[in-house]
Amino acid sequence: MSVIKDTKGDAIVEATILFPLMIMVFAALVMLAIYLPTRAALQRATQYAATALATERSDTWLFFDENAMTYYWETDKKNLENVYAALFSGIRDAQNKGDKIVKYTESRGLSSKAGKLSIDCYSVNKIVYTEIVVTATREFNDLIELPLIGFPKTLSITVTSTAVVQNGDEFIRNMDLAVDFISYIGEKFGLTDIADTISSNWKKVEDFFGWRGTNNG
After folding, report:
1. Which helix (H) or strand (E) holds 35?
2. pTM above 0.70, yes or no
3. How many CA atoms lie within 13 A of 96 on its CB side?
């Protein structure tokens, strides 16, 4: 008994199964080709902007010209702002200067410039140092509309870069405040007596093992 195997329609069935998978792979590759270069360009641009803004607020007399996109030294002390004026002008001008630096630096890359770009520049005051934070977000709309397979219609890429303000005077002042605060806590809760006890016991250990004499020698 022979059974005739009918293979008609196999290609249609196979195409029906494989076609959605091929579309998903293609869409994923397209989104990856957009995501990676754009993120790399934004990371480079935000880091450059954060470094420039932090450098201007340091005590190096080094400034950044956002129009020429170059650093320059300020040689005349008379042109420097006082501490309070620099504080308020820095808060006011940081956003505008950061916008220019990020947009210019990103435009020099090879990534796509489509979509909406939003930039946020601000400072975070730590106990010992000040940190400049620059965040950039580029949103792509109407990329690939495939709701049946769950692909998003929009793509949002956000990166954040930081840089620390190098200010020796501020660092010393904050360290003095930290030492005074620790001393105050120690006196209030009797931690000074505990520290003296530990120090005394450690000296006894050094005398017992002869470490102090070895170090002095």
Report:
1. helix 10-56
2. no
3. 7
Altogether, the residues listed in the chain come to a count of 217
| Residue whose entry in the numeric block shows the structure tokens 């709309």 | 141
CB 43 within 8 A of CB 162: no
pLDDT digits (tens, 9 = 90+) for 166-214: 776 666 666 677 777 777 777 777 666 666 677 777 777 777 666 655 4
| Alpha-carbon span 49 to 121, nearest angstrom | 9
Q: In 10 A of CB 170, how many CB atoms?
A: 18
| Structure letter (DSSP) for residue 151 | B
The DSSP code for 6 is P
Burial of 171 (C-beta count, 10 Å sphere; 0-12/13-18/19+): middle
Q: What's the CA gap between 31 and 72, in Å, rounded?
A: 40
Instruction: State the Cα–Cα distance between residues 125 and 91, nearest whole angstrom.
Output: 12
Query: Which one-letter DSSP state was computed for residue 42?
Result: H
Both tokens assigned to 24: 């998903």
The answer to whether 133 touches 122, Cβ cutoff 8 Å, is yes
Sequence-separated (6 or more) residues with CB below 8 Å from residue 94:
53, 121, 122, 123, 132
DSSP H or E stretch at residue 56: helix 10-56
Token pair, residue 11, equals 């290609």
